[in-house]
Design brief:
2 copies of one chain form a homodimer. The first copy, chain A, has about 450 residues and is of the alpha/beta class. The first copy, chain A, has helices at about 10-25, 50-55, 70-75, 140-150, 165-175, 195-210, 255-260, 305-320, 350-355, 410-415, 420-425, 440-454, and strands at about 5-10, 30-35, 75-80, 80-90, 95-100, 105-110, 110-115, 120, 135, 155-160, 180-185, 210-215, 220-225, 230-235, 240, 245, 250, 285, 290-295, 300, 335-340, 340-345, 360-370, 380-385, 395-400. In chain A, helix 1 packs parallel to helix 8 (about 305-320). Chains A and B meet through helix 8, strand 21, strand 22 and helix 10 of A and helix 8, strand 21, strand 22 and helix 10 of B.
């Protein structure tokens, strides 16, 4: 008898699950796989949107790893412009609206994958529904913003919120010739970094010519008679704005799951076990809509990042076809390019370590990306956080120029393995003058923190 | 009573030990520290020599991290142009020749650090003592070769042996306008890599315009009437040569230790424990002259690399002053830039895994250094070797362009922690389009090998 797997959401989490399941069960008469996606795009790189807006990537199709047609050629029944509007667990079916025709029908499933993603936060600020104010999460959002830049030729842009996506879009819009302001309610951009590292990012943005307003929140958006945004008002100023991008983070899309009675966790995202199974048998979840376990803090987190979505989707695709795979959790690794700076983090920041109840020490060192005498040696700062008594490495942050950020991976693997910083300082990392000083900066930082632990 | 620490050898291992000891015991009336160095240089980057020969680094002083004068200002009695010619363990003294004045005298020690380094291998090939044939290990060697290029304006260079230093010097000489040939007796350059990876390196050298002759050994060097080398003769050809560089690896300088009865290991290098103590109380060793434990094979290895010398020297400096530090061994991590390629390795190659008795599997994947759509995305190949039954990651090799090689560090930390490849494939490594595809190439390779283990 043919089993039927239904996937809600056609991006990384959902389609990776579908593709993996098909690879393990090639015959559609054994397993029918149907995926519903409300936009026209599947399997795209949301992380690439800022580079499309900034015209570093010219064609939106370049961001699409696999189109609906390509999925269909691989035996997946992908239905774009179809929105799932309800999950009926008792009936083992979903209610689907065909956005083109406008009608709805029920689609049965044996197994269900919820991969509904996340949406940009839109707090109830006065005027936030004016035209020209964009959250950017789906590729369709990206196309909309790019079109607004290409067609309307806006002069002034304001980015509200200095997270990764906000900063990347600020730089993209600056690149397109707009006068860009960034409004961040915290003391520094990139609130997921500690303040000393974040301050360097603010400097880099200003050096590029972006106006940065810290400790200021958008209190009101003013629109013209046509309802199009014209300014962003804070407690201190009014900033002209032809285009506003919201960079206030995202929230998981859980309305469907919640309405169906599928449990949510304390982060507000869908709860799964390590196999990415929800507590409801046969119902799986993957991607930006799920809660993950943070391996260092031990607590739940909701991290919207394509690399997790892909890994989780693969785990679902294996398990839903009778295999055994686990998603072992996250440690909060992230990287971004901001102007000429590369910024990266993994594990816990000082603030996060404190919140998780650790007694910790931290140190920051300055070094260079290559041997000091080698052409192109660039400054790099590495910060390491460790548990005071045990020396266990808890977190690392890096800011620097070309060649700096990917070093965070060595720190990430060390943290993943709960290594003490004294041992990290002894690691056999690669050394040659074009790549590193004789003591790799990550080792130097670990050693400095180890001295504080002793 | 003043103790006296004598250091033999003024480069990384010895001077790091001396500096660390001085830092922990600042008062010379508590601890006198005397270092003997036969050349005029201290604390230099031997790894930087090819870039000095190639004129990427213009001033030899740029390769000197700390000059004798700077060491003296920090309370170290550094005597350059002084060669230790004998160690008298019973008398607790060393016999030292002043190379300037030509006289010798005995210098007492309480503790002794042997950091005599390594020398280029000079096999007994007919004619190898002709003028113009250089091994390059000390900074003085580097100055000699550079002067030969600057002054004699040689036209043809032959590099004999395709190890890291040989390749880096081949590229340096090519950069200086010489017509360069490489003669390698193995099937590919970089014998420390597996053949499939090494073959790519040969391609890169040829693309640059270097003539590469594989499976050929130098059988004879021919000199002119003045005794200066004029050609390198192999079984197949005679290559014109105004300058020859030997890239046949190095051997540890152990004559002093051996004559004194200090035990050597099976690699021919000096044996120490984890504290870098030889079996003779109060006699320590560090750097290119010592044997290290390979944490994956479990066997002894002699690896001449500045990063190990620095770490070992620091361990000695701590222990010799009453502290406790260990050097936990190596895993064979190395990286090099060859033309436009970056080449890196860690752990065991297939050949080394076989020699160590592992039943292993291996796989190689191709990916890109950045998201495929992001400008500057460059090809990268990653090979991973794992133990078949356990899945334990044993080794990794990377070849690629800008941004490829430093990824070896994530693999190195995984191997250090004896992670199974299936777990490596789940690691939370950093992802953003300017830095990586959504699946980091190291993860993809680990996953491919994990599938072979299952």
């Amino acid at each position: 008898m043919t089993r039927r797997l239904v996937v809600i959401g056609g991006d990384a989490g959902g389609m990776t699950a579908a593709a993996r399941a098909r690879r393990r069960v090639p015959d559609p008469s054994d397993l029918e796989i149907v995926a519903f996606e409300r936009t026209e795009f599947t399997s795209y790189s949301a992380c690439g949107i800022p580079y499309f807006v900034g015209d570093l990537v010219h064609d939106v199709d370049d961001l699409v790893a696999r189109s609906p047609q390509e999925h269909r050629q691989r035996g997946l029944d992908v239905r774009t412009r179809h929105e799932v509007v309800a999950i009926h667990l008792d009936a083992r079916s979903v209610r689907v609206r065909d956005l083109g025709r406008g009608d709805e029908r029920d689609e049965p499933f044996d197994d269900l994958v919820i991969a509904t993603g996340a949406s940009p936060r839109r707090p109830p600020i006065d005027g936030i529904d004016a035209a020209g104010i964009y959250g950017v999460q789906t590729l369709a959002d990206g196309v909309t913003v790019r079109r607004a830049v290409d067609d309307a030729r806006p002069e002034h842009a304001v980015v509200v919120g200095g997270g990764y996506v906000g900063l990347e879009l600020a730089e993209a819009l600056h690149r397109r010739g707009l006068r860009v302001s960034l409004v961040e309610m915290g003391a520094h951009p990139m609130p997921t970094l500690d303040e000393d590292i974040g301050a360097l990012v603010a400097d880099a943005l200003r050096a590029l010519g972006i106006d940065v307003y810290l400790n200021e929140a958008a209190e009101r958006f003013e629109a013209d008679a046509d309802g199009h945004v014209r300014s962003v008002v804070t407690a201190s100023r009014s900033l002209p704005a032809d285009l506003v991008v919201l960079g206030l983070g995202v929230k998981p899309n859980v309305a469907l799951a919640e309405a169906a009675g599928i449990p949510l966790g304390e982060t507000g995202a869908i709860v799964t076990d390590e196999r990415m199974s929800t507590p409801v048998p046969g119902v799986w979840a993957a991607g930006d809509c799920v809660e993950s376990r943070h391996r260092v803090s031990g607590g739940p987190v909701n991290v919207a990042l394509g690399t997790h979505a892909n890994k989780q989707g693969r785990v679902v695709g294996t398990n839903v076809t009778g295999g055994t795979a686990v998603f072992p959790g996250v440690i909060g690794t992230a990287v971004s390019k901001v102007c000429e700076y590369e910024v990266a983090r993994t594990g816990l920041t000082e603030r996060e370590a404190a919140a998780a109840g650790f007694d910790f020490v931290a140190a920051t060192i300055e070094s260079t990306t290559r041997a000091g005498y080698y052409p192109g040696a660039a400054p790099i700062k590495v910060k390491v956080v460790a548990e005071r008594a045990s020396g266990r490495m808890l977190g690392a942050q890096i800011v620097g120029r070309e060649g700096a950020a990917k070093r965070i991976d060595a720190a990430a693997v060390a943290i993943w393995n709960e290594m003490p910083v004294a041992e990290v300082a002894s690691l056999d990392l690669s050394y040659a003058p074009p790549f590193s000083p004789v003591w790799d900066p990550v080792l130097v930082a670990a050693r400095k923190v180890a001295d504080l632990c002793e």
